[in-house]
Structures are given as C-alpha cells and as structure tokens.
Amino acid sequence: MDLVAVLVLSLSCILLLSLWRQRSGRGRLPPGPMPLPILGNILQIDAKNISKSLTNLSKVYGPVFTVYLGMRPTVVLHGYEAVKEALIDHGEVFSGRGSFPVSDRASKGLGIIFTTGSRWKVMRRFSVMTLRNLGMGKRSIEDRVQEEARCLVEELRKTESSPCDPTFLLGCAPCNVICSIVFHNRFDYKDKDFLNLMRKLNENVAILSSPWIQEKGNQQTEFTTEALINIVNDLYGAGTETTTSTLRYGLLLLMKHPEVIAKVQKEIDHVIGRHRSPCMKDKSNMPYTEAVLHEIQRYIDLVPTNLPHAVTCDIKFRNYFIPKGTTIITSLTSVLHDSKEFLNPKKFDPGHFLDESGKFKKSDYFMPFSTGKRICAGEGLARMELFLFLTTILQNFHLKSVVDPKDLDTTPVANGLVSVPPTYKLCFIPV
User: Fold this and answer.
1) What are the C-alpha distances in Å from 4 to residues 7, 113, 193?
2) What is the pTM of this model?
3) Which of 14, 135, 166, 226 could form a disulfide with 140 if both were Cys (CB 3.0 to 4.6 A apart)?
4) Is 279 among the annotated ligand-binding positions?
5) Residues of the chain by 3-state class (helix, strand, coil), percent to 5
C-alpha cells in the first residue's frame, strides 16, 4: 500500500472516530445542529456576528442548545430565563471560566478575568478588597473621576470646535482613572510612558488584557509577582476599553438623536447648572439622564455573547446533562434586546427605562456587566465614570456632527466578542 493510500485511510479513520465521539455524547447534551468531523459547527457561525448566528440557531433548537466549536461541545443559553436560571439560580455551578485560547496563552491562567476555580475566588476576593481599600465606591474615587472629567474637557476645548475623532481622548480618560487607583497618580495625555501604555492596551484589544514579598518562597500561594501583574493587566483591559467604547458609542448615538441631547442638557441645567462639576449625588435627581445611560449600554450590546463560562461540576439543567468543564456561552444580546421587556429593542429609546410619570425604571434584563458570581468587578466604577464623563461633556459642549445626523451609521464594525463602534468625527462646540 502506497503512502497516499495510507494517509487517506488514516484520515478517514480519524474523521469517523471524531464523528462517532461527537454523536455518542450528544444524547445527554441539549439538542443542536449536526457537527462536521473536526470542524464541528464552525461553518454555521458567522465570526463577524456570532450573536446573530446564535439567535438564528435558537429559533430552531430552543433557548438551550449545543454547538461544537471544533471537537468540543459548547452549551448556549439564549434568553433571559435561561441566562438567569444558570448564572443566578445555579450561580456557583456556572461560575467557571470557559476556554479562551488567546488569553490563556497570554495570562497563563492568572489574573481575574480568565481564571477559574479556587484561584479565581481568591484573586477576585483580593482584588475587590484592595480596590475598596484604595477608595472604590468612596468619595476619593469620585474626586479622581471628577478631576479626570475636567481634564478631558480642557483637552476637548483644545480642538477649537474643529472636527475630530474622539477615540484617543475618550480612551485616555478612563485609563487615567485606573492609573490614579493603581499608581495614585494621573498622567498628562502627552506623557511618553502613558502613551506607551495606551498603545499596548490598544494592541491587546486589537488581538482580542510589594507587600507580598513575604510570600516569595511559598510555591502554593496565589500571590506571585506574575499573578499580581496579570491582575493589573486585567484592571486596565477591562477598565479602559469597555468604558471607552461605551463613551464613543454613546456620543455617536446622541448625535444621531439630537432631541435626546437637548433633554439631557435641560436636566443638567436644572439639577447641576453651569458653575459646578457634576457629582454622583446628582444622579438620583436626573432620571432621564440615567435612562439615557442605561439605554446606551442596552442598545450597543457591548459584549454580545459575554465571556465564556464553564460548569464546575456535572449538572442536570432543564432535563439535560451538562458534564463538568463544559463551556457555556450566555447570549447577553438575547436579554438586552428582548422584545417582551423592551417594546422596540432595535430602536434607541431612553423610554425603555422610564415609567409613565417619567421616573427611572429599573429592569432585571439590564445585564451589560453580566450577572451572577462573575459579574464585572468594576461595575460600580464604570457606572460612575459613564455618568460623570458624559454629564461633564454635555455640560460644557454641544455635539455637532460633520454630516446630517440622519446619515450617521451606528452599525458596529465588528460584532464578535466586542461590539466595536464605527469611527466618526464630531465638533465639540463650547456652550
């Protein structure tokens, strides 16, 4: 038998074995499309819009289904009920972190975002405690965000009402807030070290992020220098890009809807005025602005399929058997754009978060930061930044589009892991 025949026979055996292994385990898992050998269901998923592909599959297979990303099964949860049941009602079991090859190689399983099991619990507890000790949720952090908001306004004034792409400046502001927490020092936007840090953060996103020296000799401790470095990397990655993208998208949506800007600025004039900086106490008296911030986050659907979870033990879920270690994808799109909760989910409408009397209305479906055990640890800081940055900008500037607002395209340029807003220019006209 010649070499070619041997290779063909061997490959055929591998393919048949792969198909048998996939099909033999599918009786216990939730239903789903038939996978191809080795490739699985990859050809049925649009890499540029994974969320839409999963929504289409849910129409056929229901709110809980299985897809194969290669040879490994992944269970997809679609819709509020399924996501809530898993991440909240069975939060401990679904608190594992699914495989994320690029980040796994970079972080080596360290940090907060991509760790799992006991290591994740230890490092998250440490991170939350440390951030609180550094002022998270306290007035000192609010002061830093207010200071950064004022610096951002001064940088925007330097554009002298000329058309500009706000991406860089909107990235500097939240990054500097993290710097002020970690290093107790902010940087000038032209500082070489700061610019180098920004460049590395942007590169990381494009690819997709001491006192403990008594511990040096303890090989069992989680508090190694490498682990702490990865925690800081996670803080920068999660605390900079997400807020930056939300602000960029927010300004674009506001330009698209000038009537919304007018109402927010009217509320700013009434509650804050023009002669003092916005503060967090103002938020409770600004229901429309709060609704706008929520609607921006709901509408842009920043992380459509969430970060992958995994089950930490075998579980019977809705009469299906999900074995320990199985990767879980939770569709946040299906929750944030649920037509049962939001009357017209594809339309940008702050009324989704207002009651009949104009008061702010909370929604259990609002999950831009995920939910359950692995909800974003920086949610409080992100909410503070979005409110203070946006209100400070609108307190000082009118936003003028360089094209007719009706012609602005708000479609994301990438809708895989993160919904990336399209680039645009605008003029910041001093009030």
Assistant:
1) 5, 46, 57
2) 0.86
3) 135
4) no
5) 55, 10, 35
